Please model this.
Amino acid sequence: MILATVMYRASHLVVGLFSVLQHQQGRPAAWLALGAALAFSVVVYGTAVRRREFSVTLVWLDVVVVGCLTPFTTYAWGGSTLSTPGDWPVLLGTSSSAVAAVALPGWWVVGAVVLLAVSHLTVYRYAGAASVVIGGHLISLVSSAVLAWVFWWYLSRQGRLLDAANARALQAEARRARYAERLDHHRALHDTVLATLTAIAGGVDATTPQVRERCAREAAYLRRLIQRTSEREGRALPLGAALEDAVRSAESLNLRVTAQYHAIPQLAPEVSAALADAVTEALNNVRRHAGTNRAYLTATGDGDGVLVTVVDRGAGFAPDRVVPGLGLRRSVHGRLAEVGGLATLESAPGEGVRVELRWPR
Model:
């Protein structure tokens, strides 16, 4: 609105300059009035630009000096006849009414417009202007204020709506972030603590050093979870090391894993973590459901991508007859999807299961 009213005032000052040069060049009072209007405009709008808002005091001075006194000065001593609604002294009043509508609060806008209208009506009467000239100018004076106020109201309303939309978007993003954090913790608990407890409940000897080490590691994770820190905070493992960590974790629960690696690329920490976590859950599924204590893991680089497979020769199942559980949906498919990868599963009764993890998809 500062820019819009600046342009409106500038157009009137340009009209005033050309008018004085053509018709009032020898009238010092006309030059003085035009110079005063220019000086007040610089002060009012320059202050508004610096403060990013209009000064109410300066706007009132602009209304009084530029809007009300300039027409009297140019008529009495500047040689202006004020014969049309487009004479530059009264044109400046319309830009004063516009800035008043934007800057002044509440009913003060009406007071400023009434003051401008009364002063312009008075000077037009003294100048002997025709009624049609007076009526046309008063309409222009009021309409400038109304249009400026409507424009200001609309922009303010749109700004409030935009602020409200941004606030709702931020709240929704915060909710999504909290949900994603809870989902990540749920998946981690499912793949680690719950898998360990299930194995112990199923008969795994909890007194062996490997199981005790795994329990200690997951107890530390639970403590970090309570403190709301990340499981991998400060620890970003390369993919090979992360996969070996998953293998050792599975072997601590009596699952024998044969692992082979070839040309594994350097991946982003979040991608390596997602692949390793998906492998952890795939190995957990072998131990829980396959009916075998042996699994095979291969990881092969493919340029900047990688293909990881987990295979068992256990009981298998018919994928079209089994609803994927939490582990497959969230810990395997969900994790790969979040980092731009793809997880696929192949199985048939009696032929084991093959889980294929590919990044990028």
Notes: The CA atoms of residues 25 and 255 lie 102 Å apart. The first strand starts at residue 256 and ends at 262.
